[in-house]
Each structure stands twice: as C-alpha cells, then as structure tokens.
Amino acid sequence: MLHLRLIVPADRTDDVVRTVEGTVGTTHLAVVPGVARNPPGDLVLCDVAREAGDELIGSLRALGIDKTGSISVENIDLSLSSRADKAEAEAPGEGADAVLWEHLTDATHEESTLSVTYIAFLTLATMIAACGVVLDNAILIVGAMAVGPEFGPLAGFCTALVQRAPRLAWRSFLALIVGFAVAMLLTVAFSYFMDAVGLFEEVKLGAERPNTNFIYRPDAFSFVVAVLAGSAGMLSLTSAKSGALVGVAISVTTVPAAANAAVAFSYQEYKQAWGSAEQLLLNLLGIVLAGTLTLLVQKFLWARQRERTAARSGGA
Question: What is the b/e burial string over 146-156, where b = at least 16 CB atoms within 10 angstroms of the residue's CB?
Fold first, then answer.
C-alpha cells in the first residue's frame, strides 16, 4: 500500500475527493479543512494499493495539484486493516508488478545527477578495480562493482527513452560520460603513483591473469550478462526490491573495464586498453538496451491490465 498526503486548494478539494473515491483500490480517505499554511489549503490523506497508485497520481497531476498544492507519497510497510486488504484485492494486477512512473522518473532523476559524491564513488570504485586487475584479485573486482554508482544514470537513461524525457536523458548521459572520463583520468594518475612507489608493475598487467583477463577480452557472454543484469536491475528498481541491485552490481563489468583501460593506458598497453574499452561499451549498450525493453514490456503489460479491468467494470 501507498500513503498519499495532499495539500489541496480549498476550491479543488471536492474534485480531489471525487477523484480518490473514483479510483479503484483506495481507502482510508480523510479531509482536514484549512490546516495547510504553505501553500494554504486543505489536507487530504488516503491510502491506495500500489497497483492503482500510478493511475491516481496521474489523475491528481491532471488536476494540477502538483502545481497548486503538493503530492507526497510514502510506502506503507504494514497496514492492519480489512479495508486496506479489500482495496488491494479490488485493484487490478499485483502490486509487485506495478510501475509508479512518477516515482521512477523522480528517483532516476536524483540518481543520475552529476555530483561530487557520484564522481567520488565512481572514482574510488575504479581505483579499487585497478588494484584488482593488477593483483588478478576477483574479490576486489566484485567490491568495485558493488561500490560503483553507474547504474543510476543507466536506469535514468532507460527511463528517459521510455518516458520521452530529453532532459533526463541528457542528464543521465552527461553523468555517464563525465563520470567515467574523470574516474579513468584520475585512475591513470593513481596508476602512475602506485607504479612510482613500487606497488604496480607492468609485468603483472601483462601476465595471464586467469581471474580477471575477461575484463579486456569481450565476447558474446559479455553482452548476454549485461542484458540479463540490465533487466534484473530495472525490475528491482520498478518493483522497489532494491536488495536485488547488489546482485546486479556484481554481474556487470563496467567499472572494472574502465579501470583496466586506465591502467593499461598508463603502461602504454594500448591493445589491452582498447579491449577494456570495448568491454565497457558493450556492457553499457547491453544494460541500456535491456533496461529500456524491460520498461517497455512493463508499460505494455500494465496498459493491457488496465484495459481488461476497465472492460470488466464497464460490463458490470
């Protein structure tokens, strides 16, 4: 269930109440007149089944409540109410399958912002991966994948393509390009430093490295894994099952590939650097393709579910 807290201009309260009452899957409606001060208006509270949340939020935005008042949405972890159970039963589909497009757009907008913190995490992840490729240590590679924040802008780019949001697409693209560029440049400098103090050696980079040589040897499996990871990541994001993101983080090799390219470049191992760059681009392409297709399929299936529900309601 979702809990909505609305600040509504007094002259729109009746419209909002009718909208809430007319949406299947809503309950616990309460109106407190005149308590809001900034902006002034009435306070309207209600609970809605997750699978009906996107429809209700869209209807409220169509009334302009997001501009003249406010719409706040919170997840309800526990609701002991027979009315809530009834609302969830009446709402179409399953809550785990529902996509809250407004929430997804807002979340990916925040996660795809190019900030000092984002660059810092990406740079640290790339440096950790640089240590992993030189030492041929798979544990460090996994750690770098978990630290890297690049899935945020990737998810933002997929969302932008599906929702036709050019500003979000540009923000996400900029975060990816600038973030990886800065992280790789700083990792080149880090590699020079580590070599100067005797911790990195060119002979280690040129060794067979059975645990990490896949990073600069892209093949069909690289793309397949990226596609599967992209789908899993987007599903975890849209269904609010964020724990699955940990699995996604250790399934792709974007950050390690960027790290290997940086270290190889510092030692003028251009062939290996190019192979790592191919691996990086292949993974980015696979994730974006799979994430976008996953969202499109979810959007199509949910639209069909709404059509069936509307048809049943009309027949009744």
Answer: ebbbbbbbbbb
